[in-house]
């Protein structure tokens, strides 16, 4: 039921679009840059062709740091302040990237973009929770996510269109303007939703205690590691996707179409999951998706080796569409499993779990992406490794959970 005392001053449709925009700053800052990576690499004098991948990795590192702190801080001082701070940091990162003449400055700017955009991404979820509960909260969150899913589909196309008329710096300029627009809209149309009497003091002790509880709870720790392996597979593809499609397969300006279709598969899986999970249950669905992911990867690795790491593009797309559907099924269910025993510390536990899995994925996904050699073999080998490790972690975690319950 809605909390009428904290109801928004704006209509439902407007608030859905506003919160989706705030949540999507992180995705937009990553996906819109993909078509420009080669241009940035050339202009900033990066001589390692895989060096461009760090432009993506730096954003995820910033995001991992930010997600650890924005939620607890918003519980202490209210929702609007941390969102203001996050957008401000994001804008500073955009400015640094616009005027970067050195690759290190670019990486600092990208780190700040991730650090800043994590604020609106995390706190907007808490803002929804303040206003709605039960089915109304689920409905509102679903509406926000429906709009949010469009961003990975459209963002590479936006970046490609900008590159037709201007250089890559204009993409950061567009991000800056969008950040300003979101800040003004949020400032004047969204009210504070966390009353002062409901706020709790920020405490590093609380964060530490939550981290200890996550590590001491087998199902939470196991599924956090599992989430890290699955996200590693996703991140390894994301960081080398431009090289694979535009350079290895030569799709040129059609890259956003290929990337967007994969994003639609991911979004379609997230949509289908809402009904599948009611029929099959979370653990059963995770098991089926992981086995499908692993077996597909092993089979396609054999096919790729047979084709000397250069399988036909149509076969790669079919493989990736299936893989991304599996990943879309896994993401929500794995996080839900990790959070299941931690309802009493849900906000801070979510921050800990998300940060751990993101840091893990940045390290492992970057290792795989850095092995890119002009073939898709490093990517598919990485998928096989992450799939098999995920299965092992899942079965170990489930067996420990059964032992503790008996």
Write a structural description:
- With 406 residues, the protein is mainly α.
- Helix content is 81%, strand content 0%.
- The chain has two domains: 8-201, Growth Hormone, Chain: A (Up-down Bundle); 203-406, MFS general substrate transporter like domains (Growth Hormone, Chain: A).
- The longest helix is centred in the middle third of the chain and has 32 residues, at 134-165.
- Residues 1-8 have low confidence and may be disordered.
Which architecture name of the largest domain does CATH use?
Up-down Bundle
Name the average pLDDT.
Answer: 88
- Which structural category do the helix and sheet elements fall into? mainly alpha
Tell me, what is the CATH class of the largest domain?
Answer: Mainly Alpha
- Number of extended strands: 0
CATH superfamily of the largest domain: MFS general substrate transporter like domains
- DSSP helical segment count: 14
Largest sheet geometry: none
- Quaternary assembly: single chain
Total domain modules:
2
Which descriptor suits the 3D outline? globular
Please name the CATH topology of the largest domain: Growth Hormone, Chain: A
Beta strand %: under 5%
Low-pLDDT stretches: 1-8
Distance between the termini: 37 Å
* Gyration radius, in Å: 21 Å
How much helicity do the residues have? over 70%
Order of helices and strands: HHHHHHHHHHHHHH
Supply database-style keywords.
single chain; 406 residues; mainly alpha; Growth Hormone, Chain: A; disordered N terminus
